[in-house]
Amino acid sequence: MSGKGLFGRIDWLTVFLYAFLVFIGWINIYSTTLSDQNASIFDFSTLYGKQLFFIGLAFAGIILVLFIETSFFERFASVFYIASLVLLLGLFLFGKTIAGATSWYDLGFFNLQPSELAKVATALALAKYLSDIQTDIKNRKHQLYALIIILLPALLILPQPDPGSSLIYFSLFFVLFREGFPIYYLGILLFIVVLFATTLMFGTVWIAIGLGVLTVLIFTFKRKSTKVPLLPLGITITLSILFSLSVGFVYENVFEQRHRDRFALWLSLEKDEKKLEGIRKTIGYNTYQSEKAIESGGFFGKGFLEGTRTKGDFVPEQHTDYIFSSVGEEWGFMGTFTVILLFSFLFLRLIFIAERQKNDFSRMYGYGVISILLIHYFVNIGMVIGLLPTIGVPLPFFSYGGSGLIFFTMLLFIFLKLDSNRLKDGI
Amino acid sequence: MKKLLLSSIIVIIGFTFIGRLSYLQLFRFSPDQILDDPAIKKIYDYPERGYVYDRHGELMVGNQPAYDVMVIPRDVKPLDTLEFCQLLSIDKTSFINKMARARRYSPRLPSVLVPQLSKEDYARLQEKMRHYTGFYIQKRSLRYYTTNSAANVLGYISEVNERDLQNNPYYVAGELKGRTGIEKQYEEVLRGRKGVLHIQKDRFNRDIGPYKNGKLDTLPEQGKEIHITIDKKLQEYGEKLMHGKRGGIVAIDPKSGEILAMISGPTYDPALLVGRDRSKNYSKLHYDTISKPTWDRSILAQPSPGSPFKTLNALVALQEGVIDPSTKFRCYNGFYVGNTKRGCHCGGGVRDMNSGIYQSCNAYFAGTFRKIYGKYPTTDEGMDAWEKHMKSFGLGQYLGTDLPTGSPGRIPNRAYYDRAYGDNRWASSFIISNSIGQGEVAATPLQLANMTAAIANRGYFYTPHIIKRIGRNTGAIDPKYTEPRYTTIDREHFEPVIEGMANVYKYGTGRWVQIPEINIAGKTGTVENFVRVNGERMQLTDHSVFVAFAPVENPKIALAVYIENGYYGSRYAGHIASLLIEKYIKGEITRKDLEKRMLEKTLEHEYAKPYSGEPFKINEYVW
Questions:
Q1: Model confidence at A427, in pLDDT bands (50, 70, 90)?
Q2: Which residue ranges of chain B lie beneath pLDDT 50?
């Protein structure tokens, strides 16, 4: 055991990256929510004042986490998990509805969003289950249990409705992949997604033709010696075409018009330029405005508090999901580049830390943390810069919101706490 | 592999994001996106709209200041509402409503609270205004008319609408644009060009100075004054004579093609379409679908021309060489088309060209018309020749004037009759009515006046126009208005026809309206007409038509008068024409009793007939 205390053993680089991101996030919340009634930054009636308060709470959370015994998290992982499932179930009875989604408990001074809590709990529970000495990732039954742990909260969150938060849980598959879950599952998933999108874009006939061409190519360019597995190939092609056929049905009958509009916009399905423009100005209004705001920033940006589109409230929900557009407008490409760099650096650093763990639980939990943060970052920024369809998830450490900030912080610092103890584990 | 999966995904995502951001912020970014930037406010500096003068330099249209009371709801402090309402002469409920509407529009932006105060109200309000924070007075400019006539000639201006904004990027919502008449035709000259100031705003929406030090700003360009060819006095006098009558009058100076007067009855005071009651008045005028005051009959109405058209048929016959002035036709108080007789009012007997014109003999011109066709082997070819001559007088086509509206009239041709009756299913008997200006021919008063000018000039005319000069100095007008347009009739053929027209006054159908000391050449016309009221076709009292030019030796004015349901040609149209000629040439009227009669007589009783629902008589001889 090294002679250094807790504060010597914690990974300060990560702490620094975290603090920097939270700071930049708050600066941008300040800029987007500042009104012309000039108030103190500690005025808790303003959104930036509230966020400052949440940052304080998060700091208290950090202290709490750092002083809790390390083994506590592993030991009580199942309890957390079950408690969060109960909380999610309880929403059906006691939930508070905000903006159409019943996702909150009203605690008076604070609205608690249990789906945020459940992210931490699920990451812990999955790590605990997988690190169990009896669990074998190659075993189909154990794979199924792992899937259930991941999908149960997702299923409870879906009908709130909050499809964005449900989507987050799928990221935990990366933990499974790291631990030996066959990677070709990912390939299949990717293939299905591509098949879905291309079917919408080109139609089943072209998909069938494409698959046919692919088969011909395989036979033309295969080495004489290799044998083509005819049966699996045939089954794959048949299933693909059947899937492709069902896509049309699902798209027209299961999806609602607003979903169809989002896809129509994302994949440019609507060929009528006028109608597409109409969708862009209505369904795609947020994306249109946020792209415009980012675009107008140019290389250097307009400067702090000088973002005219930010000031004019042109981008809806800018302090929450669209906070990144404020970075784009006021800080320009320099700002957005820096933020992307910081996030990428943070993730790579966390992978590095996860890989140096000697304890399986710590490593698996670390991967859970990275997966959850990464998918938020990917979906959120992808949406804000117009690469992905509109899915409402917050940008970690940036977006306004108490539950989000506090639980992302807890998520991260539990991992840092585990990491600070790695040498002890090794003994 | 499994350890590298997530790392490579992170790197790929990072590169994708940076690629997209480079596209947005480096490639698509352009530094001069100020058009849609909400932080750059544009302030417009509007030049004064140009004045309009008549041909003698008398002011017709100027500008007057108007005062709007503006409000910025956010800045309003508690006030004595009752006193304020009294000052503005509005009641309290409407004040509350207007304030609510302004707040709804925007609490920060100015709204008009009370538009266009009178000078008197403004004077009372001005000194008390400082007590009311949040309110201020904004001056703006309205049109001011020194005449209550020529409404349709001058036209009006109104705020631009959606369509204008789409069609012309110059305009910004709330600006004014010429809608009809001169205001529309010479919009760009009168309007000038507004100046633009770009103001940079800070995040509190405060001005923080010019954007880029005013590099993109422009100065306003003054609107130019224009002088039009209208004779204000003649125009006003003509409109007085039109009192209670419907119809159109156009007077042209044959030596230049300048339009001296363009009168449409009924008309209205142009000042009605300015100021606070503008929209109320506009609705009233626009929705009067029976007398149609906004429909300019002088250039839009296209009735059959009637007998004045006979002069052209005489000219065509002379040019084609099918008759000479002494060729005679017998009138049997009418003439025969196949077995049917068509009537004539000339009194019967043998007619040559001179008496054919001044007694307006239908039989003479039917005969003449037949001879024109007789010259050619087929009616088709005869028709083509006739059409070519008629069109050379500017009939059956748009004249190319500088008026924003107009009608082409109609000279029926082969294609027209083929369409109406079928190919080869018609012959000269179908079209014989055109010989006397009835049937299918149609012409606007402007075209008739122009045709008369061509006769007065003995064979050519200038495209009628209304612009005299643009700007303070004599600027050249469009050269197309100073080039003569020749008709297809040779000069020598005009004298016999003009002699006949002069005799109309001396001995013929117009002898009642002679003017001492002025030789007039004219031609009366009495046009049968039919209308459909509530689906029922009925014949109304004939239209009274008169064309004339004077003096015969050195024509100074050529005009056409068309009075709806005025009965025979010399009754209303002839009188009015002779009064206008005297007014224009002598400057005063010697025949006071005639003038008095025209000023007082109205035709309202005629216009009421078809709507009375009772049987009525037409063409009553009593005055």
A1: very low
A2: 35
Closest by Cα among A307, A308, A384 to A339: A384
**pLDDT one-digit tens code per residue, A262-272:** 777 777 766 67
Cβ distance B20 to A174 less than 8 Å, yes or no, reads no
Residues of chain A positioned with their CB less than 8 A from the CB of B1: 183
User: Burial of B483 by CB count in 10 Å (0-12 exposed, 13-18 middle, 19+ buried)?
Assistant: exposed
Q: Across the strands, what pairs with B253?
A: B258
Distance from CA of B112 to the nearest CA of A (A): 24
Q: Do residues B378 and B323 touch, judged by C-beta distance below 8 A?
A: no
pLDDT (tens digit, 9 = 90+) per residue, B79-130? 888 888 888 888 889 899 988 888 887 777 778 888 877 777 788 888 888 8
- Length of chain A as a residue count: 427
Is residue B65 classed as helix, strand or coil in its secondary structure? strand
Round to whole Å and give the CA distance between B526 and B618.
Answer: 13
Q: How far apart are CA A411 and CA A421, in angstroms?
A: 16
Measured CA to CA, the distance from residue B82 to residue B102 in angstroms comes to 19
- Tell me the chain A residues in contact with residue B33 when contact means C-beta distances shorter than 8 Å: 296
Cross-chain Cβ contact B37/A308 below 8 Å: yes
Nearest to A183 among B5, B20, B204 (CB): B5
Q: DSSP for A132-177?
A: STT--TTSHHHHHHHHHHHHHHHHHHTTTT-HHHHHHHHTTHHHHH
- B17 contact residues in A (CB cutoff 8 A): 340, 381-382, 385, 387
Q: Of A306, A336, A347, which has the smallest distance from its Cβ to B21's Cβ?
A: A336
Q: Which residue of B lies nearest to A305 if distances are taken between CA atoms? A: B203
DSSP A251: I
Disruptive mutation site among A190, A291, A296, A383 for chain B (greatest number of B CBs within 10 Å): A296
In angstroms, the Cα distances linking A9 to A391, B209, B471 are 38, 55, 88
* pLDDT recorded at residue B560: 96
**Cα distance between residue B619 and residue B244, in whole Å:** 18
Whole-model pTM?
0.64
Question: CA A121, CA A132: separation in Å to the nearest integer?
Answer: 16
How many residues are present in chain B? 623
Angle, helices A323-355 vs A285-297, to 10°: value is 80
Neighboring chain B residues of A305 at a CB cutoff of 8 Å: 203
What residues contact B174, with CB distance under 8 A and at least 6 apart?
A: B159, B160
Residues 6+ apart with CB under 8 A from B171: B160, B164, B165, B177
Cα B258 versus chain centre, distance: 15
Indicate the residue of A174, A294, A308 with minimum beta-carbon distance to B39. Answer: A308
Cα separations (Å) of B15 from A141, A260, A341, B612?
A: 38, 29, 10, 85
**Closest CB from A183, A371, A385 relative to B2:** A183
pLDDT of A37 reads 59
